TrEMBL record, chains A, B:
Keyword terms: ATP-binding, Cytoplasm, Nucleotide-binding, RNA-binding, Thiamine biosynthesis, Transferase, tRNA-binding
Any one GO BP annotation for this protein: thiamine diphosphate biosynthetic process
UniProt keyword annotation of RNA-binding present: yes
Residues annotated as domain THUMP: 60-168
Subcellular location: Cytoplasm
Cross-referenced PANTHER family: TRNA SULFURTRANSFERASE
Protein name (record): Probable tRNA sulfurtransferase
Length: 373, 373
């Protein structure tokens, strides 16, 4: 079996950039399959990639894994053959036979849909549909039904080969990981930040995940989340910083001047400060957070502004305009949701009434008074 | 006719915040309908809103417009009645009669689905389904089909009234505009920036749209886009700044030192500088851009970083991790796509080979050399 891989935005790029992105995508597919001990050859065809899975007992697993490779818009398991109408017909009959066997039905309705990217091929799409359709009708005595078929036999006429398939799976889209630089993602055990990191990987960024550790319990959840994310970026880096002492100090200082309601704000400012250092050190071009506007009381514009103040680094917030249910849906889709909700770990320093509408001047005053850097 | 409005995230908030958001949503519905000369009363019910359209010849238009109100997750035209089982049955028969007439069919299959938020009501959901279903069978001699009905009659048992309907329309979700502060959105005649502005309105922000004018043609497109967006935020403000002279100066200065390839970078830096001034002046807490990673060659992480450098303001980029087709789909849905693509206006200062991977140090050097502030 082979798998035909289709990309989306890569195809909109100039030739040079496209070839570069195709090559990164090719390598990323090999790397992810290799992680699961699946050996595969991947060829770049005419605006498609062809995956040849050599580990025969893991073909289904390989199909599943392609769902996690950024840059892939859709993909189809099937068989390729030389650009010859008889070869195409023969391969189509084999593919059809296999699919009928899988379905366990003998009396099915089918349709043939040909896409001819290679206009040099002597038969056009309608002619290929007709020739292949007729051969299948003759061979299996089936009915054609273009509107509501049980099986749609797809044929792609590419530059050097044809490809025949019956299924089309959806990929995550985006751009190949590693094509768009490195980002430092702040990652917690919650629902949002893993989704934010995933979205940046989807757009082609290499991930450096930084967890600011407060409790061992949360770290354990984060480890599992990182394991899931490492399928999307097989070369991600994971860094843990022991943050408890910093947060304790902030809390203590604020408590002394009776300003505990500002704990979350100063905590987040400190987090960004630490992230900034790591981003520089690990050569990342941006800091990524799971911030979302208005989701919880403290995620106000005013607080976001106060928190970012003084950070001289690009901060990206891919979830900023997401609804809670949109983030949750994505978390379920990528596989981090169940881990995030398995046990809610409350921050031990969460004030009773966190400040929701902080002001820059006020925060600067408190910073001085409490001697927080 | 009345319209029952359902919200999503608003329901997750504490009582005080929820009531405040409900009231903002109520006023926003009235304002949008009023803009189209539709008079309506809007009542806050038990975690629902009830819209009573008084302008009888504009009921369909009112139904259409609710699709544009941030905070609404779904809504249903129908009729309310007192919390009495006989009243519910009678109203259900009227609603059913109307729907059958609209469908133009007499022999249809139907189902009843009751949702009882008010647990005080003496009949539970199953009992209401049964009583109403039996009455309809008797009255119209129809068949019940729970799996594949032609009409699903919905009944919501609320605290003070019941509501009966057959259709459910999807809203845009999010939070009511005006509940999350003000943002300054840089807006151009392209596909992306109107979508970015829409997304911030969807999350409850009041919009100040700033267009940096280079050509009259582009401004005319932007005016039409602003008109579309003003349905999502009926109180948005629109500001035009004559930017041509600034850009000309940047181009001239860069040309003098043969660094025209940096035109886009310095242009965008200047745009953010101007946006920063306006954001302060117009009391916005953030600047919003349509930036998207890797969509065009100049939208690299490194360029985004260089461009943001020196801007001491919260910058939000809601599209940062969007695929091109995701942004395009949204643009079509909100109604700005057709305007954006009607005529492509190329920037007259676009260099042949725009710099894609700029460095902060290099840009600072050029800034000094070319005397650009």
């Amino acid at each position: 079996m082979e798998i035909l891989v289709r990309y989306g935005e890569i195809g909109l790029k100039s030739d040079i950039i496209r070839r570069n992105l195709e090559e990164i995508l090719r390598k990323n597919i090999i790397k992810l399959l290799k992680k699961y001990d699946i050996d595969a050859d991947v060829y770049i065809l005419h605006r498609r990639l062809l995956v040849n899975v050599n580990t025969k007992d893991k073909e289904d697993e390989a199909i599943d894994l392609l769902r996690k490779v950024a840059g892939i818009v859709s993909y189809s398991p099937g068989y390729s053959c030389p650009l010859d109408i008889d070869e195409i017909i023969n391969t189509a009959i084999q593919v059809m036979k296999k699919k009928m066997k899988d379905l366990g039905k003998e009396k099915i309705k089918f349709a043939v849909k040909t896409k001819r990217s290679n206009k040099q091929f002597p038969f056009n799409s309608v002619e290929v549909n007709k020739k292949v359709g007729e051969a299948i009708v003759e061979k299996f005595n089936l009915d054609v039904d273009l509107d509501n078929p049980d099986i749609t036999l797809g044929i792609e006429i590419l530059r050097d080969r044809a490809f025949i398939f019956t299924d089309k799976f959806e990929g995550i889209g985006g751009l190949p990981v590693g094509s768009q630089g490195r980002v430092l993602c702040l990652i917690s055990d919650g629902i949002d930040s893993p989704v934010a990191a995933f979205l940046m990987a989807k757009r082609g960024c290499r991930l450096v995940l930084l967890h600011l550790k407060i409790t061992e319990e949360a770290l354990n959840k984060v480890r599992k989340i990182v394991e899931v994310l490492s399928d999307y970026d097989t070369e991600l880096e994971f860094v843990v910083y022991d943050y408890k002492k910093d947060l304790e100090e902030i809390y203590k200082k604020l408590k002394e001047i009776k300003k505990e309601s500002y704990t979350c704000i100063f905590c987040k400012k400190k987090m960004l400060k630490i992230a900034e250092k790591y981003a520089k050190y690990m050569e990342c071009d941006a800091i990524v957070t799971g911030d979302c506007l208005g989701q919880v009381a403290s995620q106000t514009l005013k607080n976001l502004r106060v928190i970012s103040q003084g950070i001289n680094y690009l901060i990206l917030r891919p979830l900023i305009a997401f609804d809670k249910n949109e983030t949750t849906e994505l978390a379920k889709k990528i596989g981090t949701y169940d881990i995030a909700i398995e046990k809610e770990i409350k921050c031990p320093y969460l004030p009773k009434f966190p400040k929701t509408l902080s002001k820059i001047e006020e925060v600067e005053k408190i910073m001085k008074k409490a001697n927080i850097s």
